[in-house]
UniProtKB/TrEMBL annotation:
It holds the Pfam family Myosin_tail_1. InterPro entries: Myosin_tail, XRCC4-like_C. One of its GO terms (molecular function) is actin filament binding. This is Myosin-16. Keywords: Coiled coil. Gene3D superfamilies: 1.20.5.340, 1.20.5.370, Vasodilator-stimulated phosphoprotein. Residues 285-933 form a coiled coil.
Amino acid sequence: MEKRVCVIQTDFHQYRPLTGIHRHLAQAKRPPKQEGAEKVGVVTLDQSKRREVRQREDGAEVDQVNSVQQFLEAEMREREELKKAIEQSDRLLTRVRQLEEENAGLSKEKDDTFVRMRAEQEALQQAEQHCAQLVQARRELEAQLAQLELRVEQEEDVNAQLTSQRHTLQAECCSLRQDLEELDSALSALEKDKQKATEDLQFEEEKVNLLTKEKVKLQVHVEELEYQLEQERKQRTELEKSRRKLEGDSKNTMENLSELGKMRTNLEELIKKKDVEISDTSNRLEAEEALSAGLQKKNKELQVEKQRSDLTRELDDLTDRLEEAGGVTASQMEMNKKREVELQRLRRELEESSAQAETMAAALRKRHGDALTELSEQCESLQRTRAKLEKEKQNLLLEVDDLAASLDTMQKAKASTDMQLKKLEDLLSDTNLRNEDLQKALTEITVSKNRLTAENNELNRQMEETETKLSQTSRFKSLLTAQHEDLKKQFDEEVKSKAALSSSLAAVRQECESLKDQLEEEQESKLELQRIVSKLNGDVTHWRSRHEADSLQHSDDLEEAKKKLQVRLQEAEEAVEATQAKCSGLEKTKQRLQVEVEELCLDLEKANNAAAVLDKKQRMLDKQLGDWKQKCEELLTEVESCQKESRQHAGELFKLKTAYEESVEQSEALRRENKAFQEEIVDLTDQLSDGGKSVHELQKMKKKIEMEKEELQASLEESEAALEVEETKVLRLQLEISQAKADTERRLQEKEEEIEAARKIHQRALESLQASLDVEVKGRTEGVRLKKKMESDISELELQVDLLNKNNAELMKSVKKMQQQTKDLQVQLEDEARLQEELRDEQALLERRCTLLVTEGEESRTTLEASERARKILETEVQEAREKYNDINNQLQSACSGKRKLEVDLQQVTQEHEELQHELRGANDKIKKALCETTRVAEELRVEQEHSMHMERVKKGLEAS
């Protein structure tokens, strides 16, 4: 029971009527016992009286038996009612046990509520701390809002400045675009001019290269011509020397042949003719040595025949004249005699001259034999040298052909060079004009460049300012991101607190539901108790009406019990009203909590919306960051592509440098080769001069031999015998020469395979020489004339060569200047191209910067709008936070007041609990007493039953008696 009392500490004041009921039952049970005792006493008195009066009053027993029967019936009824009351008390005990169990559950729930109250107190403390933090956060947010408002104002000012700068930059960009378009058009024109200039320069370089090649050829040809001129001068000096020698020889021969008279004069004439012929044919006998023997034979035969024909013709003339003069007068006879005398004298002279000729012929034969031996040796040596000279002659002929072709080409080249020089002069004038135009364009470009550099500096300054502003905006952005992160953290904390509050709300809802269930159960128990009370009141009224007569003695007790019951009923009603008030308070708290839950749900929705907005902002910022990253990556890729292009250009420049160095090396190698070729040409010219000297010596020897041969021919003409002898000797010599030729041909046949082409060329040359023998004299005169012309032409060519050298030097200087100018122009064009590329890059950068500034202005607008929206949202959030703060303050105040009320209620409950404990202890004592009374009543009932059984037996015994 003590445990039950300990359990039923909270709301046992609701069960106070039960104790009153038990008391009423105990008090109600007492009178029957007294009545029974009184009845027992009455029975005992009646028995004694019956025993005493039985004898006197037999008739009254029947009435008494009837009354006893009625009393027994009433007792049975009371017993049944007591049984019902006992059953009802058992039910009440079971109900009390159930209530004790419920009290135990309620005590547990009370402990849980204490724990929850502590948790709620801790939560309230945390909420107070959170409220303090929110107050601080509100203050910080207000300060941040003030800062944000200042920053927004600053950003608006900056935005206005940026818009003005953007307009100015757009105007500048438009002007720059126009300037760039003009520059592009100018650069396109310059590029076209550059292309034309490069094409012209390439054409001029090709011409210059051709001119340099032709110049080299001309120099070589000039050197060859100079060498030939020197050789011709040497030959002329040698010819003059030989001519002088021949003149001395001719004078000697004239002195030697002055005695011969007409023959000498004829021979002198022939010698002069032969000298002329030799002098005419001396230059061409170098190519005619192969046919010289046959030609000499034919010449000798022709000369002998000519002399014979001349002599026969003279003799015929003389005979004709003599025959015609047969019939002439004596004077004529005398003249004939004189002529005969003269003829005899002439015959004598002829005989003398023949004798002298014979002596001279013998001497000449000796000399001729010696000369033949020498000539045979010289012929062999000459044949040897002849082969060499033929080879050299063929080479020289080829060189002569080449020189003739080169002369033609030189003349053509000279004409072409003149034309090219005129063209070059025109091109130089055009290039000078273009150069002046380019210089003007360069000055304009430099002016525009300076202007663009100034504008670029201004733009760089503006860009630096914008970069500083961007850095400030980035810092502001970082601050906003930090604030955003702080707000996120606060939002997460609020979400966590809201989650905790939602969990606490769920717990409170569960508690409310459990309290509702408890209230319903208590209301049901209250209704049941009211029904029980109504029943008990009915029973009380019934027992009161029934036992008014029997309980007159106990009316005071009943009134006291009634008063107590009324007091208890009032207390129970007050408790019920208190519980109803508590239920109404709980319902109010429930409604308030529901309102708070709804407000918290709205706050959660608002916070979720704010979180969604912040997520959108974060996504926008992430997108912006992604765009910036993409832009940075694009810039990095552009920088890498520019670096790659610069590397490629550097590689191309390196390749061009290497190619230029290789070309320079090749030019140096070609110069060295040209020097080597010039040295070889000098050596060859020296060799040719040596060969020419040897040929000249051979020509001298040949001329001497021909002179001797002519002398022999003259002596042969004097006498036929000598001629026949000489002819036989000549035939023998020819046979020997033919044998020598056969030997040489046999020797040369071994090398015919090697020199077939040369032989064919030589045969062609011989045929052409045979064809040109008839025109030899004319050719000689024409050769002299051509020689003079050639000398004049050579002098003119020397002058022209000097002029050409001077012009060439000037051209080389002009070419070098042009090359330098072309290099400078190329450098300038490269600089202009680089400047154009830089300007294009700067234009692209400016356009990008303009687009970036426009995008940044739009982004700043969007950020300003977003910041304004965020400011408005933050203001609304601040207002909502203020409202929440006020609501939370109100809630805290209400919670504090509720807490105070709860503390007062707890104090009242503790007091009531202590009173209930006292009442429970008294109730337990009363229950114990009631149990003792019930046991006693049971024993009395048992005694009464035994007494009734005894009385029945007595009655039966009386009836039986």
